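Open question from group meeting: does this chain pack into something compact, or does most of it stay loose? Before anyone orders reagents, we agreed to write out a predicted structure and look at it together. Recording both the input and the output here so the notebook holds the full record.
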Amino acid sequence: MRRSMLRLMVCMLCLALACPAALASAVAVPQDTVPTPLPTPFVGTPSPEDYLGPTHMPFGWIQAGPVGFDGDDLTIEERSSLIHQLQVANLQESVKDFPVVAGQDSSRDKPIFIGQMARFLQQHTPLDAPQEAIVRINMMLESVVRGAEGAQLVTEMNAYNQPAPEGKEYVVATFQITIESEDPNIVVPFTMYEFEVVSANGKVLQYAFITDDLSTLSLYSGGNGTMRVTALVDEGQQVLLRYRKAVWFSTLTK
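C-alpha cells returned:
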C-alpha cells in the first residue's frame, strides 16, 4: 500500500514538472521569426499606419507605394503635389538609359549628337506670374531625315507644302523633350523659331516655312512630347542646330 502511494506521488510530481515545459514549448515563437518590414513608401505618401489595408488598388485610388491609399483622404493641393511627384519620377525613369550630356557644356565645335540626352536649366517667366521660374530641360535629337525621305515627310505633314527648290533639300530634325519644375502649374512653350540652323562654315540658314503640327510644343512639369525643326539647305550640306543660342546639336550620329 505504501509502495503504491509512493509511486502515485512520484507520477504526480513528474507530471507537474513536465506540463509547464510542454506548454511553453508549444506556444514558444521561434527566435528567427520576425515581422517582415514594409518597404519605404514613396516620398510624400502618408505613413504606413495610414495606408495599411488592401494590397490591390480599388477604383479611385492612387498607386503611391507598396499598397494603395484613398485619394479622397488628401486635399486638392496634396493630391496635385503627389501626382506631380509621380510624373517627375516616371519622367526620370524613362530618360535614365540615354547618355546624358550637360547642355551648357556644348558648343559649335563640341555639339550634342543624335541619341544623346541634353540636360540643362532654363529660366522661364510665365505670362501670368511676375517672377521667373527655373525648369530642367531634357532634350534629345531623336532623328534627322533629309533628301527624298525628308521631302516625303514634308508632304505628309500637309499636302500644301511645296517641294524643295532645285538644288535644295529639306532637313527635318525630330526632338524628344521633357521638363521638370518645382512648380507643377508652370507651362513651358517650345517653337522651331527658338532654333538656329547653322551651316558647317558658320552661316545661319533660313527656315523652311511649311505647315507642321509638330513645329510647336507646350509642356507642364513631368510632361514629355515631340517637336520638329525643318530647314531648307543646299543638297548634301551639313548643318548644326542651336537652341536658344545656348545648346548645340549635331545632325549626325557620333
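Observations to bring back to the group:
The first strand starts at residue 62 and ends at 63.
The chain has four helices and 13 strands.
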